[in-house]
Amino acid sequence: MFKVRLLSAWLLVSVLLFLAAIHVYWARGGAWGNSASLPKVAGRRTINPSPAATMAVAALLAIGAATIGGRAALFDARSWSPLFHFGAWALAVVFLLRAIGNRKTFGFFKVVQGTPFAYWDTRLYSPLCLALSLLAAVVATG
After folding, report:
1. Model-wide pTM > 0.85
2. How far apart are CA 13 and CA 52, in angstroms?
3. Which of 3, 25, 100, 122 could make a disulfide contact with 30, Cβ separation 3.0–4.6 Å?
4. Does the residue 43 lie in any domain?
């Protein structure tokens, strides 16, 4: 079980740091992937995050990576252990909720279809969030 937990942690940390880097890229004005990164209704984005908000998401993703790393003992974090345990479960719940969605514009049960975001949300974003939730739960239970 230890190898599964360690592998799950490394995979989850890698994906979270990659996602953080993409958000930094977008916050600094990058355009790649931007057209399919946010839900749209009637051709308009449902949210229009500022660069600061996008950087905040990047920071939260990096904190999530550190939390998983601490929980899996990828670095010495004994005094923070209870916080990392709670944080790993919190990440599992947050990513599960993201996968389920808001029943309108994102998640497995969305009704808005036919947009680039909806296409990628169905095929990549929501399944990835479900996988991240499961990986966080594996790390949290160890």
Report:
1. yes
2. 23
3. 25
4. no
Distance in Å from the first CA to the final CA of the chain? 8
CA atoms within 13 A on the CB side of 68: 28
Q: What is d(CA 44, CA 57) in angstroms, rounded to the nearest whole number?
A: 21
**Residue 123: which domain range?**
2-28+49-141
Region of residue 30 (phi > 0: left; psi between -120 and 50: alpha; otherwise: beta): beta
Domain count of the fold of the chain: 1
pLDDT tens digits, one per residue of 22-34: 999 999 999 898 8
Contact indicator for 90, 109 with CB cutoff of 8 Å: no
pLDDT in tens, 73-104: 999 887 788 899 999 999 999 999 999 999 99
